[in-house]
Each structure stands twice: as C-alpha cells, then as structure tokens.
Amino acid sequence: MKKFVALSAMLLAACAAPEPKQADDPLSGTRWSLVSIGGSPVLASESTSMQFDKGRLSGSDGCNRYSTSYSASANALKIGPNIAGTRMACAAPVMEEAKTFIEILGRTAGYRRDGERMTLLESDGRPMADFKKTAR
Questions:
Q1: Beta-strand relationship, 110-114 and 84-85
Q2: Given CB 3.0 to 4.6 Å as the disulfide criterion, which of 2, 48, 115, 133 pairs with 34?
Q3: Structurally, how many domains does the chain consist of?
Q4: Which residues are paired to 48 by β-bridges?
Q5: Burial profile 121-133: b = 16 or more Cβ within 10 angstroms, e = fewer
Q6: Residue 104 domain-assigned?
Q7: What is the pLDDT of residue 32?
Q8: Distances in Å between the alpha carbon of 30 and those of 22, 49, 91, 100, 120?
Q9: pLDDT per position as a tens digit, 52-88
Q10: What pLDDT, in 10s, does the model give residues 8-26?
Q11: Which CATH number belongs to the domain containing residue 27 in this structure?
C-alpha cells in the first residue's frame, strides 16, 4: 500500500510540475500570420497562419487547415515532410495562394526573425514569405 501511495504522489507531482521550456526550439509557442509571398501582399493574410508547438506545426493555408512536424534551431527550420490538411474548396485565387503557401513550407530551410517579423528562407538563403507575429 505504501508503494501505491508513493507512486500516486509522484504521478501527481509530475502532473502539477510546469512543462520545461525547450531551449533548443526557439519557435515553440509562437503564432505567425502571412503578410507576403515573394514580396507581394497576399489575399488571405489574416487567415493564413503558422502555429509552432513543440515539434508540431499547424495552422491555415488561407483555405484549409494543415498540420505537420517541424524542427527549428537558431536559424534553421525544416518543415514536414508530410503535410496533412483538409480539402475544402475556396475561390480559385485563394486556392492558388494556399497551394503556393504549402509548397513554400515544404521548401523551407531556414528563417530570419526581426522582432515581430519572420521570413522563411530557401536553402540558398533567398526569402520566400514574410510573416508577422500574432497572439496565440
């Protein structure tokens, strides 16, 4: 019985303990809204988003919800490879922009942050898309 009580106390303590912050994942706990692709403003800027949470990336491509894995360091970012998403129909221009956004996620090799702004970068360092930080 003493073992059961001790084990129960340990489990309760573990559940009550705050989750440790992952220092090696600088993006975890942040949310971003798309501002531009290739320097051009986007149609669905407020709804196109990225939510980073401990190795999981989710959000909206402007038309559909998506989810995938990611790994991030100080300036490297790998998204995917498998991006799952819903399959709703939207207006043709929004669907084309959503397709481009998902393609950019798959090509992302790095990122650059400047305060409340973030840019996704290709492997050669070229900027692909710009985001602004938003509240979770």
A1: unpaired
A2: 48
A3: 1
A4: 61
A5: beeeeebbbbbee
A6: yes
A7: 97
A8: 13, 11, 29, 22, 15
A9: 999 999 999 999 999 999 999 998 999 999 999 999 9
A10: 444 334 444 333 344 589 9
A11: 2.40.128.270
